[in-house]
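Hi R.,

Here's the chain you asked about this morning:
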Amino acid sequence: MAKNVLIIEDDRHISDLVSIHLRDLGCQTECAYNGNDGLQQALSGKYDLLILDLMLPGIDGMEICKRLRADKILTPLLILTAKSEEFDKVLGLELGADDYLTKPFSLREFLARVKAIFRRVESAKEAATRKEEQQELLFRDLTIDVEKRKVTFKGKVIDLTAKEFDLLTLFASHPGRCYSRQQLLDLIWGYQFNGYDHTVNSHINRLRGKIEDDPSKPKYIQTVWGVGYKFADLEELDT
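And here is the predicted structure, written out as tokens:
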């Protein structure tokens, strides 16, 4: 299904350029050229993504972001702005923006961030569905209580960090599915960690140290050489 994207940007050249490339991704786009119109359209909640400039005529982007989140409109939001100060970036994210891109930006990076947002949203939806369908994942000596965020191995409760738990739950929810390090970064840490492959590696190593009998010969979280990592197929665990 095509994604509906609202672009709130007063620079029509940028708005048109962004719109063209989003349509190339299969998105349907609408544009608003001032903050007042953009806020009214965004409040409808019918969009899958909002592209928002901070410096707008009428209501500015920060205020739009604040009002949307106050009204429980949780549409993913990507800020585009000429402002580069750390304060503006942090404030935008604290107000509920999902990502932040400073002008001028490359269209390749813009599209990569949009795709990453869509992937995180789909992953969250899948996780919510899995949570409704199954609160507990059972694999031989390993038990994952998704709702309580509790993991036991051979009857002993395992102390995991938030990211270790998220990684394990993602893997265990999709046995046999291989994830690249970049996919794991996007899904668990977010796009801003692009290039931090060592973050994934270190978390995998620590996780193996907690749930594997022999971390050097892992049964659960396996390395797929040249690709990434996967959770063992159910057939493999049975044997």
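One quick note: The CA atoms of residues 149 and 165 lie 7 Å apart.

Cheers,
M.
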